[in-house]
Amino acid sequence: MIREGTPLPTNLSIESEAFLTGWRIIKNLDRSTLARNIEGANWNFFYLAGEIRATVLGRDRSGTLRRAVRRVLAKQKGQKFNSLEITNVVSKWFLGIPFINITAHLRHIQQGIGLVPAKDSALRMPVGAPNKEMPTKRYTALIPSS
């Protein structure tokens, strides 16, 4: 999935359709082809370590999947990276109740080599009061070599 309005290399042709407000699902490329095309244009496709999971109850598969993706995105509020890779979707039943488990990873497409999202997509870190310990999150970006 890619956030609407994400800057992309000019030679990259992506076919997509709306999935959620502000997000589009890429239809014509798989992850590895998309990564190769982005890297071929001397851009970077960052992969952030750490999976995000969500479980949602429901019978309507497409509606349930949308709610699960919304839940994943809500867990990452304030960390405005411009793409999301859904790595696993599992439909199950428990005691007659259908549910979907999804697993996803944050991704980020940008021209520069440093993991610095665009100004409107900056990492949001909590601001602590002076002389107090501030909780921090560490992010690990994996940069594939060509």
Annotate the secondary structure layout.
Layout: E1 2-3, E2 16-20, E3 23-26, H1 31-40, E4 44-48, E5 52-57, H2 61-75, E6 83-94, E7 97-110, E8 141-142
Antiparallel strand pairs: 1-3, 2-3, 4-7, 4-8, 5-7, 6-7
The number of domains is: 1
Shape: elongated
Q: Could you tell me the mean pLDDT?
A: 80
Helix count from the secondary structure assignment: 2
Helix content: 10-25%
Q: Kindly report how far apart the N and C termini lie.
A: 23 Å
Q: Quickly give the structural class.
A: alpha+beta
Largest sheet: 5 strands, antiparallel
Contiguous uncertain segments of 5+ residues: 120-139
Give the radius of gyration. Answer: 17 Å
Strand content: 25-35%
- Succession of helices and strands: EEEHEEHEEE
Number of strands: 8
Can you characterise this structure?
The protein has helices at residues 31-40, 61-75; strands at 2-3, 16-20, 23-26, 44-48, 52-57, 83-94, 97-110, 141-142. The protein has one domain. The longest helix has 15 residues, at 61-75. The strands form 2 sheets. Strands 4, 5, 6, 7 and 8 form a 5-stranded antiparallel beta sheet that branches. A 3-stranded antiparallel beta sheet has the order 1-3-2, with no helix packed on it. The model is unreliable at 120-139 (pLDDT under 50). It starts with a strand and ends with a strand. It is 17% helix and 34% strand. The radius of gyration is 17 Å and the shape is elongated. The chain has 146 residues and is of the alpha+beta class. The protein is built from 2 helices and 8 strands, in the order βββαββαβββ.
